[in-house]
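check these tokens.
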Amino acid sequence: MKSLRELYKIGRGPSSSHTIGPERACLKFEAMTPGAARYKAVLFGSLAKTGKGHCTDKVIEKTFTKPVEVVFDCDTPVDHPNTMDLYAYDEEGREIKTCRVLSIGGGAIAMEGVPFDKPAEVYPHNSFEEIKNYCDAEGIGLPAYVERFEGKEIREYLREIWEAMQSSAYEGLRKEGILPGGLMTQRRAKLLFDQTIENEEPEDRENRLVCAYAYAVSEQNSDGGRVVTAPTCGSCGIVPAVLMYEQVKYEYTLDEIIDALATGGIIGNIVKTNASISGAECGCQAECGTACSMAAAAAAQLKKMSLDEIEYAAEVAMEHHLGLTCDPVDGLVQIPCIERNAVAAMRAINSVSLATFLSGSRQISFDAVVYTMKETGRDMNSNYRETAAGGLASVYSLSRLSKKQKTPKTE
């Protein structure tokens, strides 16, 4: 497996595949074509179908320093769902270079004809079973496992990741108003956080605060703010929501939070290595499902739970996201994405509670549920994999169209 630096990345939302990846591709392509006078970017697959809502065109236009034309090709079939072709032209309009780019998830890209700068394999193990066996034999936990193969400097990197997570949450908690994109989605994080209810039950307070943190980060992401991929932009609110709530409630130290991020990162890495964290490839089960597993494992680490209990918490979290579709309304990372982050954060906490009581009787391994998620994603109709062509996205669009047709025309 690769470094946690390839999993946790700081960048601008709303989508690691649709914004961070294309931005990196455009920067590289422009550096390769210093004599170009203008550019063209043709988007295919999910990049074309949800690129408007995910601000892909805006990112491309901002990244190139010369004029660029962005074309959305929703009809041409491609092998990879996040495909784009880049063209460079001289002053006379002659094509001087072209390159096909794949945005392969988490902001990573592969460019045709360009040596793939493949990150080094840092960990010698690829499954939870292998890692658990190694840790048991060495008498260490997952944080020590991460430090052993990444070096002590990984803790400083995770500290920076934690600071970025907190920053996006606190900024989101301060903001009010309507998110861009035309859905008139109201920011609700501040409302949730500021809401005080007399004699509020502890469970209600927990749900409200966890949701407030998740909404805050997710709303920042939707607004193109700076977030951490955990493991993606679309699921960026889940891990920080759980860890921030737990830290405030139990006063965990920074070192304990770093340990939790290391443990959650291993879970995310296992999914990324053996299945996918891309909504365009496997639906939202790959994004929010993975993030929920990461958050559950991280919270279990904070509570000093055993490896078996950590595995069970992560497995429960993923198992009950299986089949979750990625169907963003209007291609925006707002409905149902923001609310979904809050629900997954609460589910992560519930998964830890269940693992506390029942880990000794479980029958499904984390590795098995990761494999199942991959197979489920392969079987999922493309309408439910970040294309905004099916599910809630299509129902919402039909409902809106119906309302317009029933509205009398006025002169």
